[in-house]
């Protein structure tokens, strides 16, 4: 696997163009986006092409040295070979951004803005609430709830003292 | 440059051996706690309520309050 990669990377691209000679028009132009591309992605660790395509002379001599025993390479040379093949290491491509701070800030700001809109709406758009919200009506509702003995065991009616007609202490 | 080889196998098994006993004990404890903090007091509250419950008296009190449609208060 690594041997085929090394062979492919020696100075050349892996081109898979189809040469169409159509009666007098020549070769179809190769679009840049149709060729294999390089990308840093965690889920596909080995892209189709190496990062550096046009090697400088030192890099070419390094590639020649790579064909020999790898134990002979120093650590810097190994890192240099890595950087020829790849743009970012996994650590570099995976590290998080601070984007979440702007997202959360934007969320709070827009929620606040919406709150202001809702307040304005409540004051200037909506009409008055129904008469069932009047305090006297609410008192009558409460009295009826207690008369009906709603939830007398653990709920609302349990908190009312029916003997003394007051709330339980 | 010579890092130790990372652990490649048995990762799920290790995680399960650590987390499953904790998960089971915590869920059992929460179930027991719920039983003795919520359901037992609730059963007791219902039992106590119905020990002293006179349904006829309650019915008459509700009737006088005028909430029924089938029986009106005795005055009318």
What does this structure look like?
- Chain A: Its main location: mitochondrion.
- Chain A: It is a single-pass membrane protein.
- The complex is a heterodimer of chains A (169) and B (76).
- In chain A, 43% of the residues lie in helices and 2% in strands.
- In chain A, strand 1 and strand 2 form a beta hairpin.
- The model of chain A has no long low-confidence stretch (mean pLDDT 85).
- Chain A is mostly helical and 169 residues long.
- Chain B has helices at 11-51, 55-65.
- Chain B contains two helices and no strands.
- With 76 residues, chain B is an all-alpha fold.
- Classes of the chains: A mainly alpha (169), B mainly alpha (76).
- At the A-B interface, loops of A face helix 1 and helix 2 of B.
Condensed summary:
Chain A contains 6 helices and 2 strands; from the N terminus they run H-H-H-H-H-H-E-E. Chain A has 169 residues and is mainly α.
Helix content of chain A: 40-55%
Q: Evaluate the radius of gyration of chain B.
A: 30 Å
Largest sheet of chain A: 2 strands, antiparallel
The number of distinct structural domains of chain A comes to 3
Proportion in β-strands of chain A: under 5%
Give the assembly state of these chains.
heterodimer
Q: In percent, how helical is the residue content of chain B?
A: 55-70%
| Average pLDDT taken over every residue of chain B | 94
Distance between the termini of chain A: 82 Å
The CATH superfamily name of the largest domain in chain A is: Cytochrome c oxidase subunit IV
GO biological process, one term (chain B): mitochondrial electron transport, cytochrome c to oxygen
Transmembrane segments (chain B): 20-38
Keywords (chain B): Membrane, Mitochondrion, Mitochondrion inner membrane, Transmembrane, Transmembrane helix
Family (chain B): Belongs to the cytochrome c oxidase subunit 6c family.
């Amino acid at each position: 696997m690594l041997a085929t990669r090394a062979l492919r990377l020696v100075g050349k691209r892996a081109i898979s163009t189809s040469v169409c000679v159509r009666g007098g028009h020549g070769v179809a132009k190769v679009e840049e986006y149709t060729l294999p591309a390089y990308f840093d992605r965690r889920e596909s660790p080995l892209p189709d092409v190496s990062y550096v395509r046009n090697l400088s002379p030192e890099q070419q001599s390094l590639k020649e040295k790579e064909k020999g025993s790898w134990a002979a390479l120093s650590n810097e040379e190994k890192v240099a070979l890595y950087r020829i093949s790849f743009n970012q290491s996994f650590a570099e491509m995976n590290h998080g951004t601070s984007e979440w701070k702007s997202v959360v800030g934007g969320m709070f700001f827009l929620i606040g803005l919406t709150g202001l809109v809702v307040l304005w709406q409540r004051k200037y758009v909506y009409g008055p609430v129904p008469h069932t919200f009047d305090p006297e009506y609410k008192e009558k509702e409460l009295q009826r709830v207690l008369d009906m003995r709603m939830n007398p065991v653990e709920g609302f009616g349990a908190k009312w003292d029916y003997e003394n007609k007051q709330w339980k202490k | 440059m010579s890092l130790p080889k990372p652990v490649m196998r048995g990762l799920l098994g290790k995680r399960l051996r650590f987390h499953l006993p904790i998960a089971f004990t915590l869920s059992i404890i929460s179930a027991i706690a719920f039983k003795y903090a919520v359901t037992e007091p609730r059963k007791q509250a219902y039992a106590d309520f119905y020990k002293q419950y006179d349904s006829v008296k309650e019915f008459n009190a509700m009737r006088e309050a005028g909430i029924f449609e089938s029986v009106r208060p005795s005055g009318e």
